[in-house]
Amino acid sequence: MQIRCSNPACGEKFDRAFSGYACTRCGDLLEIAITCTPDGEALKAEWKQRRMSNEPADTSGVWRFRDLLPEYDAGDIITMGEGNSVLVEGLRTAEYAGVKNLHFKHLGWNPTACFKDIGMTVAVTEARHRGAKIVACASTGNTSGSMAAYAARVGLTARIYLPKGKVSSAKIAQSIDYGAEIVEVDGNFDQALDGLIENPDPNIYFLNSINPFRIEGQKTVMFELMDQLDWNPPDYVIVPGGNLGNSSAFGKGLEELHALGMISKIPKLIIVQATGANALVRTFLAGGKHLEKVESPHTRATAISIGSPKSWKKALRALQFTNGLVLDVSDEEIAKAKVLIGRDGIGCEPASATTLAGLRRLVASGEVDPKASFVAILTGHVLKDPDAILEYQAQEVHQELAYGAK
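Above: the chain's sequence. Below: its structure in token form.
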């Protein structure tokens, strides 16, 4: 493997020990290039065979795909069995969206109840490989809990910078329970993250999604999904858009699978943002040359309340590669979609419900074929933000959603 600039026009390469997160030539984010070229069909058989093993690296829904991940000795891998999230058929939700074939891949069913574990297992493994003693992140809550848990497994100090008063109390409590050091920052997530980037500490290994090793773990969601579908890709994969690490990772994973001939059809990626934090939507509509920031992002879906997503260029590349779509939905649409997901017995945190809200909008506008197949990614567990449920109930949103309402 090698570390390289994610801008294909630049292509600058860096030693594995490089401590930065952006290209020193052009300033774009870095990515990991897996230089091996295994046989795709042989990989499918190997990955399936590993499901029968009880070795820790095989029972992980990330490290089972280690042939396309950075290399580590088996004993150095930090895993808690992350990944392995099942596909759940949408019932009431499919009817609500106006489609026939809808499944949810719920990444909230992970060790710390969110998708971050899938990237954090690789990132914290890399932190220990580098000899780090302190890991840190800015967070809207999910990254912090995940990083703290994995850091605790190997005795690393986890330092978390949270926007004061803008993070679910459940997420803060989770991070504290794992022994994290909490630093509350006046301002929003973007300001917290920029503060860390602009004032780097050489003693701290930084684990936000600008860390390319995080993205390597998160790309395996697409590996697992295609394996679960017997390598028959869906027409669309729908994902919430916050700092855009998942969008970038999924695009990278699909690129690698296609390059190896493991999938013949590329599913179109649909990225859904909240209207009050829709920087990618604005950027896309403006032509994609420069990031159109949202200076004061605001949405009840706090996990994606981000106005200056750092992975926006990678996300645009993923949209281009998959011929995908990007849109935003209102907090009211998110609230209604969240209730329906709950009525299907699945449940999710508010940010996840953007996927169903976005799908409903696209079907209604005729932009997608209702007969197509859809997989919606749910990123966080319903108990990540229980206050949101009580707020929605108080607003009596559920009364507007009698079964079958259109």
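The mean pLDDT is 93.
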